[in-house]
Amino acid sequence: MKTTLAWAVLLIGTVAVQAVLLPLIFTQGVKPDIILIITMSAGLLAGRERAVGVAFFAGLMQDFASGNVFGLNTLAKMATGYTAGLAERKVFKESILLPVLAVIIATLFNSAFMQALLFILGYKVEPAAVFMNQVLPSIGYNILFCIPVHRLIYRMTFGNRSQF
């Protein structure tokens, strides 16, 4: 119960910051996706079940806050969290490189998944323009935030059992 409450507070606070504060700081339209980083870290550290649950709750709130195609963020985050969760037992969780490499892969996967969903829904998709104007800057911003967020998720998952 205590852990569920901590996750809920983290996700609600993060969605609020990402929807309200980050657009004021990052004015060019591209901003870090902290929800994606949390989902990716939950998958790598706590497994696919936890990641899918976190991604569903966070993606749903993000869909409500964003005004995009409803369900797009939810499905993309769930797929990303599930995919990251598949690697949970295969990674060295204390590695400082893990969140950096994983966030690059997760950002690419999440963006490709969202573009594929939009294409399936009949929207015009320009992958090259999206990649250059949105995905690459988003990767850079996500890298800036990935280590502190990953450490926070590590502490929420394992407590203070390690020196990470």
UniProtKB/TrEMBL annotation:
The keyword Transmembrane helix applies. GO terms for cellular component: plasma membrane. One of its GO terms (biological process) is regulation of cell shape. The chain crosses the membrane at residues 96-123, 135-154. It is found in: Cell membrane. Keywords: Cell membrane, Cell shape, Membrane, Transmembrane, Transmembrane helix. It is a multi-pass membrane protein. The keyword Zinc-finger does not apply. NCBIfam families: shape_MreD (TIGR03426). Belongs to the MreD family. This is Rod shape-determining protein MreD. The lineage of its organism: Bacteria, Bacillati, Bacillota, Negativicutes, Selenomonadales.
